[in-house]
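Researcher: Here's a chain I'd like modeled. Treat it as a single chain, no partners, no ligands.
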Amino acid sequence: MNAADKYFIYARKSSENEDRQMASIDAQVSELRELAKDKKLNVVEVFEESRSAKAPGRPVFNDMLMRISSGEATGILCWKLNRLARNPIDGGNISWMLQENVIEHIQTYGRDYKSDDNVLMMQVEFGVANQFIRDLRTDTKRGLKAKAERGWYPAWATIGYMHNPYKNKGDKEIVKDPERYDLVRKIWDLMLTGAYTPPQVLKIATEEWGLLNRKEKAVSKSNIYRILSDPFYYGVFEYPKGSGNWYQGKHDPMVTREEFESVQDILGGKHNTRPKTYNFPYKGPIICGECGAMITAENKVKRQKNGIERHYVYYHCTKRKDPNCSQKVIEEKKLEKQIAKSMLSIDIPEEFFNWAMTRLKEDNNREVKARKKIILNQQQKLGDLLQKIDNLIDLRASQEISAEEFKTRKAKLLQEKSRQESLVRNTNERTTEWFNNAEKYLTFAEDAYKRFKNGSLRTRKEMLFMLGSNLKLVDKKLFIIMPDMLQAIEKASVEVKQIHDRFEPQKTVDRQQFYSDLYSQSSVLLRGQDSNLRPIG
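Model: Modeled as a single isolated chain. C-alpha cells:
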C-alpha cells in the first residue's frame, strides 16, 4: 500500500445479543492501531459507534462513507467484516463502493479486501452476517414465546416486580420487588376504598411513601392508570401486547381477580376521567380459531318502531391478524349458553365434593409420609456433596491438586449440588401443590352451573378463566381445553349424575353417608381418584 493512502478505523459494538462475544470498542481500536502500524497503513481518523448493524441508518457509519466518497480516505480498517454491515443494504453499499474503487482497500484483523478482487467472498460474508441476524431474531422470538408458555412474562417486569437476579438471562423468573411490592399493593388498597382518584393515590404514593420506579424516577400519571388496569397484577398476561394471546402467569399475583375487577368498576365510574366502556365479561381470554386474533365485543342498539330500544352484545374477531378472516359475530347470550353447558359438564353436587375431599386428604397424608423418606435420602445426598466440596477446597489449599483440576472437579460438584437442591425442593413442594390444585378445582366444580347462571358479570368472567386455557371461537362454537384435573372431574361428573338419577335416599337416611357408600362402590370414581387426581412421580 502507498504510504499516502489514508485509512479510517471503524469500531462498532452493540449491546444486543448479536455482539455479546465481540471485543469492546476500545479493544478493537487498540488492536487495529497495532495492525495499522504493522502493515504501515496511514490512519487519519477513528470512528466509534455503539449501534446494531441489523438495519440501515447508523449515523457514524453513514458519515464515514460520505467522507470516503468525498475523498478524505481510501481504505477502512475494522475488526471483522460484520462490524461494517449485517444488513443487505449497507453490505451492498460497501461492495459497490469497493467495485467502483471509491474504497480501494478494506483491512480486517484476519484478511483484506481490494477493489480488484472478486467480491463474491465479501458478498458471502455479508450474507452470512445478515442471515445470522435473521436467525437470531427468529430464535429470540421463539424463546420469548416459549417463556410465555411456561408462565413467565418475557418482557420488562412491571413496577412491584423484578426479574430474579440469581437466574441466567432467558431463565429469569419474575419475583416480588422487596422495595416496591408492598407500596404498589397499598396503591390497590387505596383504590379499593373508592375514596380516592388515581392522581390522588399517585400523589400519596410518591410524596408520602416515596415510591419510585426501578430507574429511581417518579411514577407518571399515565403510568398509574396503566398499573391499575394491568391484568398482570392478578396473575395473567397478554404476549405480545395486542396479540390476543393470554397466558396464566406463574408469578405471585398481587391482587385477586375480584379486587382487580372492582378497581376497573371504579375506573369506569365517576373517578375516571376517561369515557366509560361497557363491561364485556368474555372479552380477553378468547381468540379466533381461524386467524388467532383476539375476540372483542361491542354493544349494539336497535330501535323498534314503537320507540323501544333493545341492547345486544356481539362478540367477533378483531381481524387484526387477517383482515379477510371469515368468522361471523355471535350474540353474547348464545356464547353464554355454550359456557354454561361446559359448566354443567363439570358440575358436582355437595355430597361428591365432600366425599372426594375426604379421600384426597387421606391420600395426601399417605403421600406426605412416603415423601418424607425420599426427602431424607435426598438431603443425605446433598450433605455428602457439601462434604465433598469442603474436602476439595482442603485439597486445593494444601496444593495436593492443581488449579485446573480443582476448577473442573468443583464445577461438576456444584452442578450436581444444584440438581440435588432442585430435587429436594421439587419433592417437598409437589405433594402440597398437587393437593392445593385438586382442592381448587373440586371447589370450582361444586355447583358450578348454578353459580355461573346466577353469578355477576365479574363472577362469570372469573369462572371462564378458571374453566380452561386456549379458548377458541370457530364458526360460532367455543372450544375449551380444560386442565387435566377438570377433565378428570368432568368424567366423574357423568358417573355422579347417573348415581343420583338412579338412587334417592329416604328422608330419614343420612344423605352424605348414603351417597358416599355408593361413590365408594363405583369403579369409575375410584379409578379417577387413583389416577387423574393423584400426583405423578
